[in-house]
Write a structure and sequence with these properties.
Layout lengths: L11 H11 L12 E8 L1 H9 L3 H6 L5 E4 L16 H13 L5 E5 L2 H8 L10 H23 L6 E5 L6 H11 L12 H21 L3 E4 L4 H6 L34 E3 L2 E3 L8 H21 L1 H12 L2
Parallel strand pairs: 1-2, 1-3, 3-4, 4-5
Antiparallel strand pairs: 6-7
Helix pairs in contact: 6-8, 10-11
Length: 316
């Protein structure tokens, strides 16, 4: 989500690991038994996953290390759902699918910038009516629906997994983003953490409903996941699983993700507990592990899952 990560948000060790992965040292992970099956599409949350290869450990832990991801040109910081309905971005998706004909699932993280672009300097609970607010959120959901339809029109794509967001940290955003983002106003029009959370809850609910309505589309409910893991606040409930996703949302909807979910950054001579928007590697891994448990193990990991996958591939 906008703005893109400051360089200092990536610890040196992570960058060294990334370089080691990219260097051609025999390329053991290029073996023929390994293939790209999942395409990553989305904004800077997707970009953070791509740059850090955050899927690798959760997939290895699940015995799915043979499943690789693609997404170099479709994981783009700052992008909105309204971007991926445009031909230039759809061509990026088409190019990735052409290069990776074995991809049959798309992991989609999108919509956050569409929300932030509307609320970063506006209190939408006072400036808008409830009807107007819902109309804005529905327009975002309509774009995500269009993206899902576009993806599922490719014969090779059997599944689209919409991965939801967790709560941002409004106070941290107010402190650091005006410094990073060229002096833009990030005061949310004075909205509270609970009000900003509510904006995301309303959009995530529409994404959840969309997944329920569309064949081939699934949803990962992440709201409150990290509060629950860190027990901050105490007793924060885990987000609900499909099919009913109860409780929705999870966690305490008046609170942010814990600071431990972000990497500390230094900017303009100040130290911040992250930027309030972009999770660290461990947090991305935690959310991917949830998707692994809910969907990727059943599809790719069990004999029943493999049989279902083969049957789906055999359909005309």
């Amino acid at each position: 989500m906008v703005p893109r990560f400051p360089v200092t948000a990536y610890p040196l060790a992570r960058m060294i690991l990334l370089l080691a992965l990219l260097l051609p040292t025999g390329c053991g992970w290029c073996a023929k038994s390994y293939e790209e099956r999942i395409l990553l599409v989305g904004d800077s949350w997707a970009q953070g996953i791509w740059v850090t290869r955050a899927w690798e450990q959760p997939f290895k832990d699940a015995g799915l290390e043979h499943i690789r991801w693609a997404g170099e040109t479709t994981s783009i910081g700052g992008r909105k759902a309204s971007d991926f309905v445009k031909p230039e971005y759809q061509e990026k998706i088409r190019g990735e699918l052409d290069r990776h004909p074995n991809v049959d699932t798309v992991h989609l993280i999108i919509g956050g910038n569409d929300v932030l672009g509307r609320i970063r300097d506006t209190n939408v609970f006072t400036a808008w009516t409830e009807e107007q607010r819902m109309k804005e959120w529905q327009s975002i959901a309509a774009d995500i629906r269009t993206i899902c339809r576009f993806l599922l029109d490719f014969p090779q794509v059997r599944h689209v997994v919409i991965a939801g967001y967790d709560y941002l940290n409004v106070e941290t955003i107010r402190r650091i983003l005006p410094l990073v983002d060229q002096g833009k106003n990030w005061d949310f029009g004075g909205m509270t953490q609970a009000q900003v959370n509510q904006c995301f809850i309303e959009v995530e609910r529409l994404k959840m409903d969309l997944a329920r309505e569309m064949d081939g589309v699934e949803y990962v409910h992440n709201l409150g996941l990290n509060q629950h893991v860190f027990n901050q606040p105490e007793g924060a409930p885990a987000p609900g699983d499909p099919p009913d996703f109860t409780p929705f949302p999870g966690g305490d909807p008046s609170m942010p993700m814990p600071d431990a979910c972000f990497d500390q950054v230094e900017f303009a001579g100040q130290r911040f507990p992250g930027d309030g928007v972009h999770p660290n590697l461990a947090t991305h891994q935690r959310m991917i592990a949830r998707a692994v448990k809910l969907y990727y193990i059943p599809w790719y990991g069990s004999e029943a899952g493999k049989k279902a996958q083969a049957e789906a591939a055999a359909k005309p």
